[in-house]
Amino acid sequence: xxNRRPDPLSEPARAFALGLPEAWExxxxxxxxxxVGKKVFVFFGVLDTDDGLxxxxxxxxxxxxAMAFEWVVPAGYGLDRGGWVTCVAxxxxxxxxxxxxxxESYRTVAPKKLVAVLDDESPP
Length: 124
Known about the structure:
The chain is α+β, with helices and mostly antiparallel strands. It has a single domain, classed as Aspartate Aminotransferase, domain 1 (Alpha-Beta Complex), CATH 3.90.1150.30. The chain is built from 4 helices and 6 strands, in the order αββββαββαα.
């Protein structure tokens, strides 16, 4: 097995996504995704690569802000029409921004009752 470069963002980002209310991990197409119900809210891709943190999320509010980064591109497979973006985050990308994007994607696809649970858990 080849040595993988250390990646400070992948595990915290995945843990954050899977810690959201009723989020769970699935592996369609050989990729790792986080779902709420039957809907994907973040694609993590194939985890055994040296790409560092690569993920795809649906952004409505932060779409333009995200697209300003050179490491963010419109998602492929026609997902870009729905506001999906793919990010290949450099090691120094702010984790707070990445988790905010993951949460925004979750809020976009999750049922309203689960978004309300998330709001109840958030500090004032």
